[in-house]
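Homework help board

Subject: predicted structure for assignment chain

Our instructor gave us this sequence and asked us to write out the predicted structure in token form, then describe one feature. I got the tokens but I'm not sure how to describe them. Can anyone check?
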Amino acid sequence: MKIVIDCRLWEEGGVGRYIRNLVSRLQKLDTHNFYTLLTYGNPNIQINNSHFHVRSVSSRWHSLSEQTVFLYNLLKEQADLVHFPYFSHPVLYNRPFVITLHDITPFTHATGQATTRHPLLYAMKKIGYRQTLMHALTRSKHVLVPTNAVAHDIRTMGTKTSITVTYEGVDESLIQARPIAVSSAKEPFLLYVGNFFPHKNISFLLTSYAKVPKAPKLILVGPDDVFTQRMRSQAHMLNLENRILFLHAVSDGQLRYLYSNAQALVFPSQSEGFGLPVLEASYFGCPLILSSIASFKEIAVPGTTFFNLHNEESLMRVLEESIQVKKTPYPDAYKKKFSFETMAMKTLAIYNTSV
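My token output:
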């Protein structure tokens, strides 16, 4: 078969890690099928298999060009199968494809707060998201999801498309990275890793944290964007400047250092499809303090501390007790259960049975 993988988000965060690990392992697993990797920009992709080659396209995700120019690019490929590793894709594409839906948060938590655009444009964007999602659920040959929690959410929408859970793992580049000390990270400290979209619930974390003066310093790692600036403004209003540190553009070596030395990872999200930082932190022995949502309960290691995301006192209590939390080793069973290699093997099996 000729298989096309949409790799336009290669250099992005969570989805990018998923794509990079999938492609890396497919090159080791598959010497039968032929692959075209469609990229945006000029990412550094190492090719170790002659059946793989890279082609650049000019269309970004979430754009009109994606629905027109990128559609034309795909049709020209005449692929036997296309893998869209993210929900955003051309809704008029009518050849065989499989899609990975990491979550359906924009559908379940569409409050309008996660946008900087005019309300009318946001309403149009929301309609477009629903159309894209429904096209994925009705026209794809197979839907891949990272947890049973996401599979359950999708099935409640009434789809008859086959759904397979392909758990993700810890990136090999992170495991092999040499720890690089972060001079501004003085122990003890609590850690958050991710973006600052409203459903991540960081505002709730800051409000609760401000009421626990004995809690360790809080380090928040993520992009420097408009949502981060909102959290900076809230931290200022709560007089937290001396207790909170925002870090951006953190390398794998620095991230490994933070995971290895944090008192705990605090993740207060209202909705997650998986939560790679949860798995990464626990791999390096970092205790977990998580909101009690279904996906976190599915992937968290034994001994995780959960709190009620609708109860401020519940979070305040665990923050106050966080200094006493003990580090625990990552279970061997989790290394087998949550593995990018296993994910790639299951994905390849789906490729081979979807045409």
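Reply (TA_rk): Your tokens look well-formed. For the description, you could write something like this. The chain has two domains: 2-169+339-353, 177-336. That's the kind of observation they're looking for.
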